[in-house]
Amino acid sequence: MASTSTATDVSTDHCYSVKESPRKLKRESVHLQEKLESTNKKLKVTQQAARHLTKKVESLEDVISVLKQKNLVSDNCADVLEKCLSGTSLQLVLRQLAKHKQVQLGDRQYPPELRAFALTLNFYSAKAYSFVRETFELCLPHPKTLSKWYRSVDGGVGFSDQASQAVKSHAESVGGNLICSLVFDEMAIRRQVEWDGSSYVGYIDLGSGVDDDALPVAKEALVFLLVSVTERWKVPVGYFLIDGLHGDERANLLCTCLSRLHEVNANVVSVTFDGSSANLAMASKLGCTLKASEPNTAFEHSETNTPVCIILDPCHMLKLMRNLLAEKHTLIDGRGQAIKWEYIVKLQQLQTKEGLKAGTKLT
Questions:
Q1: What is this structure's pTM?
Q2: Whether residue 302 sits in one domain with residue 159
Q3: What single DSSP character describes residue 82?
Q4: Whole-number Å distance between alpha carbons of 233 and 21
Q5: How many C-beta neighbours within 10 Å does residue 75 have?
Q6: Which of 147, 167, 188 is where one domain is finished?
Q7: 271 within some domain
Q8: Could you tell me if 132 and 256 lie in one domain?
């Protein structure tokens, strides 16, 4: 019995020694060493990429330059962005860009300079804003945060929060989405700068809060008007002081407005604007074509993916046709017949000679 017990103990000790043999421990050590080296390599590559990004883009001036090279912003947008940032404000923004945080910051943690830069960049180009935001690892606020910053409750420049709340309350009272049309147009304003008691007004103002006398003086107010299709009401939802906008910038601003209206249960089914070249370029940017051979007069809503029709203002289009006829003097219709301006001239001469004004509205 003793010999049997001794043999069993020896066998057990032998199994234990094999399980924890130096050869096996060495293999495990080599495996852990290889894993550590692989992790260090990945960490080194990540650190090199971070340092490369920091060296590649050392200031927001370089950011603006990159955006221009990639054709993500226009020259007008780049000029306004450069006016927003200088001296101390630039250093504040650079400090903010140096933060590699993956969490959303609160409104109060964004310096006013970064807030103005973000609003201005997003106003001109949502694509450029997404590019900068992804490149700098979420250092810029989420577009939903910008939507809140755009709001104006005192009648100032931007999208009116009071108008949005009124539309939302009305939608809740009727128990459903409101079927609406959106109308926007530029209104010519006097190129003048005035002191309103707290700041100078009259410069380009995109609702970003930038107060810089180096900005160009605005010459137009771009106004957005929401009109009900099924009811008899309309309400202005926002305006911006501008000095001209390109087609891409108009398309971006229109999509922003549609998204805001969707949040307050306003279902926009059509957009009406005049036939200026910038608006036609905007329609083309949105995917619409006005060619007689293959017309496409609707684009996809960014939030609902439903079609939104574009309508060229008939009154303005008639004026454009009148001006074209007055400039060219003769147009040829589809049947090859001439439409001549001289007939209108002769009609006006006849009215002047006879002293009788017909219902032609000619002066």
A1: 0.60
A2: yes
A3: H
A4: 87
A5: 9
A6: 147
A7: yes
A8: no
Per residue in 87-136, pLDDT (tens digit) is 444 544 555 555 544 344 444 466 666 777 777 777 777 778 887 777 65
- What type of residue sits at position 17? S
Return the number of other C-beta atoms located less than 10 Å from residue 6's C-beta.
Answer: 10
Domain boundary (116, 147, 178) is at 147
In a domain? residue 23? no
Mention every residue, 6+ apart, whose C-beta is less than 8 A from residue 103: none
Nearest to 178 by CA among 125, 230, 108: 230
Angle ∠(350,355,360) on CA atoms, nearest 5 = 60
DSSP 203: B
pLDDT at 16: 45
* CA nearest to 246, candidates 80, 100, 88: 80
In a domain, 75, yes or no: yes
Residue 52 φ then ψ, to 5°: -65, -40
Q: CB count, 10 Å around CB of 271? A: 24
281 and 359 together in one domain: no
pLDDT in tens, 237-275: 989 888 888 888 889 889 989 999 999 999 999 999 998
- Determine the straight-line distance between the first and last CA of the chain, rounded to whole angstroms: 132
Do 157 and 249 belong to one domain? Answer: yes
Confidence (pLDDT) at 90: 53
Residues ≥6 apart with Cβ < 8 Å to 66: 57
What rounded mean pLDDT belongs to the chain? 78
Structure tokens, 216: 């160009």
pLDDT 10s digits, 174-193: 888 899 999 999 888 888 88
Please give the average per-residue pLDDT across 315-320, as a whole number.
Answer: 90
Asked if 296 and 157 sit in the same domain, the reply is yes
Model confidence at 158: pLDDT above 80: yes
Domain that holds residue 72: 60-147
